[in-house]
Amino acid sequence: MAPRKRNNNNRDLPPYLYFESGKGYRLTLTNGTRKVISKNRTEAIIIANEYNRLKRASILDVILSGDSKSSPLAEHCDAIIERMITDKTPGKSLLSTWKNDITRVKDYFNMPGNQIDLGTVTDYMEKFHGTASNNVYNRKLGFLELVFDYAKDIGEMKENPAKLKIKRPKEAKKRKALDVKSFILIREAAPLWLKTAMDLTLQTTHAVLEISRIEYKINKAEQGRCGCIWYPEPKSVVGDTIYGELAIHRQKTHKSEASHVVIPIGQTIKDIIDNSRDNIASPYVVHKLPKTSSNPMSKEVKHITQIVSHNISREFSNLRDKLELFSNLSKDERPTYHEIRGMAARLIESQGVSPQERMGHSDSKSTKIYTSFGKEVEWIQVPHLKVLIN
Q: What is the pTM of this model?
């Protein structure tokens, strides 16, 4: 790994040794690990020089001589992905995708970073993602851009050739929008847990992943959790009773401020939550018992009664097809559970209200009211409203 650029105060430090305020002097080891070796400058310089002499003599000679054949990018991918994960804090699904993608990058780019050009990027994209949809292709190219940006940051690349690659045009959406009549028909045929999920998505506009994680009660809004914060006493707001707040951390947008939303729990949402209760003891509003006790609990859930989000979506699609709704369309054109969000947004807009903040979209231009529930995290408090379905 090539040493990073320094500021003027640290130009006398040995290669790979850096000062970090509040921590001390950190040395980047040959395996990519960064380790604090001392808080004393003189001692740190002595240790770093000796380590470099024993472990890096030949590598430093090549780097200092300007030989471009010194360092295959593949050797730095593990350290790069660890930094990306630390900086970006991806959710479980995206983290899994990133780990698969970085393996491809490691396998393919077994060459110095400064030897990678637009032609190399094109060959990589064609080999691994040439047949992917335009949207997937663009996401994979975006991942490569991010990796190369980090490679530039550590001095392994001077340019980012992935940014020279033209993205494919966005594909027109194939799926048909969900209409209110079909929503009602599916809801009437749904078991209680699916009916509860559908109703919550309608009123909150949030996706199945967040809905599957809503807890009956949490003490405060927290990073990585969704749940109900109940007031000691109900409050009266604009002619409606507010019983508490529903905190939603939308995983897809990671650390974006708009991904942390607090929705007032009015009578409609309270009724949905109250009606979800049955004889199953569960901390989750959307819940059911597994079919057999012998089935192992999925790694995607935290309680045996919590429902894996894609199972909620699958049951919605199964009911849709059982009722022969949209049977004139191919399966990839039929509306899925996710289309409930779009339907809810349209219904909210018809009431003269922007749905952007409620949906956790970071591009909202509506007025934001901030409530500091979590440490170093700002939660957007959205106005109370009831989504009218007829």
A: 0.58
